[in-house]
Amino acid sequence: MAEATPMLPHFLILLSLYLVIANGVHSYDKKSFNLQRKQQHGTPGCHLPESRREKGAVILEMKDKGHCLERKADWLEKQLELDALHVRSIQNHIRKKTSSQIEDASETQVPLTSGIKFQTLNYIVTMGLGSQNMTVIVDTGSDLTWIQCEPCQSCYNQKGPLFKPSTSPSYQSILCNSTTCQSLQLTTGNSGACDTSPSNCGYVVNYGDGSYTSGELGIEKLSFGGTSVSNFVFGCGRNNKGLFGGASGIMGLGRSDLSMISQTNATFGGVFSYCLPSTQVGASGSLVMGNQSGVFKNVTPIAYTRMVPNVQLSNFYILNLTGIDVGGVAVQASSFGNGGVILDSGTVISRLPPSVYKAVKAKLLEQFSGFPSAPGFSILDTCFNLTGYEDVSIPTIRMHFEGNAEMNVDAAGIFYLVKQDASQVCLALASLSDEYEMGIIGNYQQRNQRVIYDAKLSKVGFAGEPCSFT
Q1: Closest alpha carbon to 343 in 183, 455, 425
Q2: pLDDT at 209
Q3: pLDDT tens readout for residues 380-406
Q4: DSSP conformation class of 327
Q5: Is the bond into 375 cis (omega within 30 degrees of 0)?
Q6: pLDDT value of position 185
Q7: How far is residue 20's CA from residue 104's CA, in Å, rounded to a whole number?
Q8: Per-residue pLDDT tens for 101-150?
Q9: Strand 429-431 to 425-427 pairing
Q10: E strands, 16-154, where?
Q11: For the stretch 324-363, what's the b/e string if a residue is b when 16 or more beta carbons lie within 10 angstroms of its beta carbon?
Q12: Is the dihedral of CA 21, 24, 29, 30 positive or negative?
């Protein structure tokens, strides 16, 4: 049944958070979903405020990728289509790894979310490299950090200047015969190349949507909030093409030896966390380097679950999803606990095995009834026409993990507002094509959560945190 009357005063709408269905037997947990969204005007700059040090931790301000760009009229559909390519590429990567086949270069790297040209796909921070500040996309599904460098043979347009290694006294090239160059195979799936410059270590990373970066590996001083990390290995991109928007490159927060978290282990102890903001104008979250919970603003206790070990997929953050409840009612599906799920900031919409998605969808429709349906949108097949409503009460969604940890999905991560007049509002989850594909928890469902990655102790923590302040 409908839970709200169009245009009721806000305080009356909030009274409907816990309604009893007609038979009087069940009381479902609800959240208020606001259907009014602020419009983006103008083209903001891409650089964010300087990072800062607080209580022993380094804090970087985080914004959605659209902070750098003008809004595009067709970004919604394109971002989801490209997100589908991203997920397909991850599944291809997993199949090849687990079947012990040799991978093609186009599928050797877990790809960056494809639609970063558009508003909500990825999140950006600004880091110091040498004497320059570079704005980069945060991606837990990538390992190598890279930025565009001068002289550039072929570069996409970015906000702000390219990195200039020739003017940096702390920059050094990495040689082909070095152990760092030889370890590149494990990070990108491509061995270090010496074709264009025999003395320097070349790299190539190809992403699932056809985007790519190539150049040579270099060493530079990395800095956050007054804290410096010497001898940081990164990719100096000379040929870069794709949907990277106005950002300077990628911050790779994966688990390989060349990832950001591994290279800064001595400084930050192998721990980082983030709180992903919404896409409203002015909303801002944070990326925290280091294990200093005193800087968090979480409103619920941190609950940890272990990272599931997988030798073949060691670069992924894999967790054991043990259950999901909708409106406080447990979903029944046989796929829980089968092989784990990937936690990925580079995927937008979470993907669930077909049996799990079908069960979640059925529970939601049971509890969110009485509203007219709307056509499906791209990968989203469960949509409603909520025209005329400012707020509606929607069922809660909680994801449960091994060790009694849970992620309480924020209201902003349950429904996807396709049209500004609310005539098309969709469940922000999608089904995998095959029951045996690995599930993925995307960034849309991670909003307003403090997500803590502890690589040293191989665990991930979740806590509610209202990071989307304005």
Answers
A1: 455
A2: 67
A3: 999 999 998 888 999 999 999 999 999
A4: T
A5: no
A6: 65
A7: 55
A8: 433 322 222 222 222 332 335 788 889 999 999 989 888 988 899 999 99
A9: unpaired
A10: 30-34, 52-54, 57-64, 123-129, 132-139, 146-148
A11: bbbbebebebebbebbbbbbbbbbbbbbbbebbbebbbeb
A12: positive
Q: Give the model's pLDDT for residue 182.
A: 79
Instruction: Please tell me the distance from the alpha carbon of residue 44 to that of residue 42, in angstroms, as a whole number.
Output: 6
- Which of 344, 391, 410, 454 is the catalytic position? 344
Residue 67, C-beta contacts closer than 8 angstroms, at least 6 positions apart: 44, 46, 48, 124
Record the tokens describing residue 443, joined without a space. Answer: 């960034």
Burial 110-126 (b: 16+ CB within 10 A, else e): bbbbbbbbbbbbbbbbb
Which residue(s) pair with 441 in the sheet? 343
Mean pLDDT of the chain: 80
Active-site residue, 325 included: no
| CA 389/CA 422 separation, integer angstroms | 8
Query: Whole-model pTM?
Result: 0.83
Give CA–CA dist 322/435, Å, rounded.
Answer: 16
Structure tokens at 199: 């003395």
For residue 59, which of 284, 232, 242, 233 has the smallest C-alpha distance? 284
Please, how many CA atoms are within 13 Å of residue 383, restricted to the half-sphere of its CB?
19
Tokens of 416: 């996807």
Sheet of 415-417, strand order: 373-374, 383-384, 425-427, 415-417
Going by C-alpha positions, the residue among 1, 3, 8 that lies closest to residue 31 is 3
Q: Which of 103, 78, 79 is nearest to 93 (CA)?
A: 103
Amino acid identity at 111: P
pLDDT of residue 235: 95
Please give the Cα distance from 228 to 130 (Å, whole number): 10
Residue ranges for the chain with pLDDT beneath 70: 1-27, 36-50, 64-76, 99-121, 185-198, 208-209, 279-282, 468-470
Q: Which two tokens stand for residue 139?
A: 């991606």
Catalytic residue at 143?
A: no
Nearest partner of 425 among 391, 448, 467, 470, judged by Cα? 391
Tokens of 290: 């280091």
Given the residues 139, 391, 410, 454, select the one marked as catalytic: 139
Sign of the Cα pseudo-torsion (178, 180, 186, 190, in order): negative
Which among 168, 21, 135 has a CA at the least distance from the CA of 67? 135
